[in-house]
Structure formats: C-alpha cells, structure tokens
C-alpha cells in the first residue's frame, strides 16, 4: 500500500500525458511555451478567477504574491503556525514579521475569531492556510481585512478544487496561491504552482516578477525572481485536468467513507465545516501515543505521515520571531495529528484495511 498512489493515476493518464509531453518535445519551447498560457486559462476558468499566473512552486507563489503587494521589511503578516515551513519562510525572506494566530482545534485551520486582536499599525496582510484540503473561514477573514485595509493571501497549497460557500479555493481573496507538488490533489511531475487574482494590476506585477521583473525582454521594471513554471509541467497539468473532476468526486466519496468508518470505531477526526467541503489533501485523525500507533500501523503494512509535528513558532528558525507558547491548540495538534493513506485511486479494500489496523492499534 502506498501513502499516495500516483502510479495508478499515471496508468490511467499515460496516453494523454505522453501525447501532451511529446508536443512540447516537438515544438521545443521548454520555457513559457504555449502550454503555459493554455494551462493558465484552464486553471483560471476552473477556479473562477480572472487571472492565473503559473509559477515554479507553491513557495514561489507565496513569495511573488507578497512582492506584487509591495510588502516591505518590518511589515507584519498574520498567519498560522500549523503549516508547512514555506508559508512562513517566504514572509521572513522578505524581511517581514510573521504574527502567529492559533488554530481551531477541530479543523486545524487558523481561528478567524482571534485574528483581529493581532492587527497593528504594521499589519499589511493576512495569510490563512487552507489545511488538509479544507478552506479556512475566508468570509470572516476577508471581513477583517476590509475593516483594516489589508490584503489576504490564501495559501491553498492543499486545497485546490475545494469549495467554500459556493466558490472555489484560490479565488476567494486578494491572491490565492497553490502548489502542484506531485502529491497534491492536482499535481504535476515535479515542482509547480500558481497564483490567482481578479486584480489586473496585481496580475501584471506577478507576471513580471516571475520573469526577473521584466515588463519586456531585458527591460526590468521591478525586482523579480526566476519563478516560471516549466512548459513540460504545464503539459502534465493539462493532462491531469482531464481527469480532475472525476478525481474530486472520488475524493469526496472516499473522504466521506473514511469519516463513516473512522466514526464507527471511535477515532477522533479533523472536522469539515458544513458550509464547505474538503479535497482531502490529507485524511488526518487525532491520536494519543502517536509514536506507538504509528509503529503498530507500520507493522501492519500501513504507511502514515505527520502534518505537522512541530508548529512553526516552535521551530529553531522562527521561534525568536514570535511567542512560541501563545498557540496551545497548534501545540496540542502537533502532538496528536496522524495522516492516513489517501488518493483518488485508493481502493475501498485498502481503506477498510487502514481503518481496521488503526482500530487495532488504538485498542
């Protein structure tokens, strides 16, 4: 059993992936070839956003979004400590200060009710993370941003395809950023990412920043980065988009089935709010004595992962920037979360096996 089954997915898409990649090999435009614009149009239409700008990774997406917003050293960005390091490292790379807000203990997403108390005269943006495939409470977050004149950057690295109050993740705020890392709900075969926005000026800034700040060849109008997504990776995404609607439906079915099976054996799970869904980037449960449970599952042939074992405000690189003990729910979640095998191609038999092995381990 694999934690994320990419081999079965590839077998279903092999002919389309090969044809798409062959076209790139034939025309030879490996950087900013026609598949880039084609993928951007398809992704924008899917998300419901005016603009999509593909970039080299989800990390670059966050960095370019903040650069397009002209964030400066000393500016504060409110975010969550319970996320992958990329969320915060991009803030710090620009000389900005991350301000950490605790999470909702049942969803593990940032607690919107705690954000406004952290707004200061130096606050420039809020960066919620839509963790595990479920969108954060963007309506409440956007309302706070409007009251204080702040930008909102949704880190949707795990939630592309998810729906919140009738709208797609990454098309809910000033900027939406996602990752196409291979194991994501929509992934390529290397690194890749995208930015989404309805703002024409910000979209143009992001497009220039990703090509070293060029408004035209060798005319550099702003500081930029080498942040382009390869044409070959865009070709892979185009092939995968052909199956994506089916995968989202299958993820929903398997996610709901996991919820039922886990509830039947009394396992505490991450909650999905009724006004949104999840694309189940991870199926995550809460367990005590996690190391013992993981070892038992490993012995039973069930792979697991922990997303994430140490909150970022307790990481050596960042703990000096903000209070390491001010987010108790994040600290408790970090001790208890455990992610189970999942993909759109997971079989129900393997799902049953996972749940039974977990029930045995907990017993």
Could you tell me the number of beta strands?
Answer: 14
| Structural shape | globular
Give the name of the CATH superfamily of the largest domain.
Type I PLP-dependent aspartate aminotransferase-like (Major domain)
Structural class: alpha/beta
Under CATH, the topology of the largest domain can be stated as Aspartate Aminotransferase, domain 2
CATH architecture of the largest domain: 3-Layer(aba) Sandwich
The number of distinct structural domains comes to 2
Share of β-strand residues: 5-15%
Q: What is the CATH level 1 assignment of the largest domain?
A: Alpha Beta
Rg, nearest Å: 20 Å
Question: For the terminal residues, how far apart are their CA atoms?
Answer: 22 Å
Quote the average pLDDT. Answer: 97
Q: How is the main sheet built?
A: 7 strands, mixed
Which residues form runs of ≥5 with pLDDT under 50?
A: none
Cross-sheet strand order for the largest sheet: 1-9-8-5-4-2-3
Polypeptide structure, described:
This protein has 363 residues and is of the alpha/beta class. Helices cover 40% and strands 14% of the residues. It has 2 domains: 6-101 and 108-238, Type I PLP-dependent aspartate aminotransferase-like (Major domain) (Aspartate Aminotransferase, domain 2); 244-362, Alpha-Beta Complex (Aspartate Aminotransferase, domain 1), CATH 3.90.1150.10. The strands form 4 sheets. The protein has a 7-stranded mixed β-sheet with strand order 1-9-8-5-4-2-3, with helices on both faces. The radius of gyration is 20 Å and the shape is globular. It starts with 5 loop residues before the first helix and ends with a helix.
